[in-house]
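Hey all, sorry for the wall of text incoming. These are the two entities for the joint prediction.
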Amino acid sequence: MTVQELPGAAAYRPTPPPAWKPLTDPAPLLPDPEPYRVLGTDAVADADPELLLRLYAELVRGRRYNAQATALTKQGRLAVYPSSTGQEACEIAAALVLEERDWLFPSYRDTLAAVARGLDPVEALTLLRGDRHTGYDPREHRIAPLCTPLATQLPHAVGLAHAARLKGDDVVALAMVGDGGTSEGDFHEALNFAAVWQAPVVFLVQNNGFAISVPLAKQTAAPSLAHKAVGYGMPGRLVDGNDAAAVHQVLGEAVERARSGGGPTLVEAVTYRMDAHTNADDATRYRVDSEVEAWRAHDPIQLLERELTGRGLLGDDGIEEARAAAERMAAALRERMNADPVLDPMDLFAHVYAEQTTQLREQAARLRVELEAEQDQHGHDDVEEGR
Amino acid sequence: MTTAAAPAGERAAKARPATMAQALGRALRDSMAQDPTVHVLGEDVGTLGGVFRITDGLAKEFGEDRCTDTPLAEAGILGTAVGMAMYGLRPVVEMQFDAFAYPAFEQLISHVAKMRNRTAGAMPLPITVRVPYGGGIGGVEHHSDSSEAYYMATPGLHVVMPATVEDAYGLLRASIASDDPVVFLEPKRLYWSKADWSPEAPVAVEPIGRAVVRRPGRSATLITYGPSLPVCMEAAEAAVEEGWDLEVVDLRSLVPFDDETVAASVRRTGRAVVVHESSGFGGPGGEIAARVTERCFHHLEAPVLRVAGFDIPYPPPMQERHHLPGVDRVLDAVARLQWEAES
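and here's what came out:
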């Protein structure tokens, strides 16, 4: 039986709903279908050579940092390290695009962005070494603690940017998240709050292809992650995440837009994680060599190096200089990380509350007794061995 | 009798019946007036004044930037409050009902409770999370949870529950002024309880973490807080006929926990019953009973008993009276304190 045949159907006339239509023309918010590129295109003519050289030096340093940190996991000096090799252009551009007064909200893989922003390379690794959760004062560098839960730092960025604007400061917050993180509820809530409040925030999604083992196709059915922006009423931008000049330009425009009161932007940088999720992961179980090799041909350092050498801005000396500087950084990092951190167990109770509760004072006293007993025991052992 | 001739100042200072809801609203207003970094945010807190009208008038007086209607998203409300606190503000967020706060749990547990600790003291978060909580108002499902056990199991949070009009004001002021995050549980069935209280007169702002003896007694101690305090006070009056002189201790906060006041009372009386309306299994009563036993074992004449809600999901409103510990259930426990060891 069709609808037309229903008894009485002909007599029904629906009342038209009260007039309502969507307010925003979505077209300006939509990303271009192709990721934006600068290197190897006409747009590169407008790029500042000084900036390109700086980006290059930082990319080389960043890759060496990743290699050194991964090596430190093999020596047991780091509990774990999530390498960002292949993603250096996103990391470095995120750090360099911000003014000193701005804030960076990194995810757990974004150590490199924090270091490029000026954080001490060792302080950036304390979380992964396991001696302290955050080895730095977030206010000193305006870098939020490296965030392990996915996407939960995004609403923090929105709140901070909102608070800054309420105070009349022209501060921008840049928040970094991976492709997997875009499936989390906090991603949605952060983008929604940011757009409603027109908070000066830039969201940078590093789409590196996989959330541990799950490929993007199993993560989202959206045309692109940048397309998600239109649903919140903010512009979405798609950029080649291995093109440092392009990422810097797109993020720069988004930061400027936020700073001048234009509200938030969602930037999706399409890149690739060359290493496994962390040193503890086996990437051969979920991806094929040919895919990795194809991305190796689109390496962020090689792209920039070819551009700079082709234009005569960089010669063998310059390349050697960048590598030597990276090597010096790695050697210093290695040396400092090989020293055992000095830890005070009593610190466990020091920063739970502004004022210790009675219960914590009692527990601290108990631990002190245990430590003293341990000390006595060790002293005794030493004497025994000395005989 | 009319007092129209009295000078304005005297009239203002005169105590008159005020509700807990009014005292809470007054505490928010006074905190905002005193400290420009105090911001109120949540669902419906602005134009509507909150579904319980606690924030009534704040948006009008302080502007929408200081009292903000947010999108409907609890994790977003608390998550943005974290960022605001990182930038030096003192956010007071409202979770509309107890069970509505659960989407914000990750922000609360993973960030709010830990930020001071994980930054070695560099970044404390002075956030107050106001949660209208508990049953007894005929609310439908998800509107009557007692969630204090979840919060008190998380180091880094203060968990505060006022039971009187005066404490509603004083403890909320102290919570907002605290440099640590506070989960402030408002017993919603006491919102309309009244006391002669003058909001204009100086009100003592108690430090968080001190219990108080609400009724002195000699034969047993009722240890309680929040919505169960009036139940215990009524039970104590009723027990007089049975020859019991009950002492009633109002904890006022579960974290920090005032071991001293509680233990001193139980040592005096030798017997104790913990009363709360959240479920007994894994509930605050177990922790309190253990603490009392550890400190007062040689003074105890009977095991520490618990009177709690049943270990069931919060029942539908037409059945909630069977779940909530009432006077009779408390008196029954008191009778069982005449304990004799089984052979």
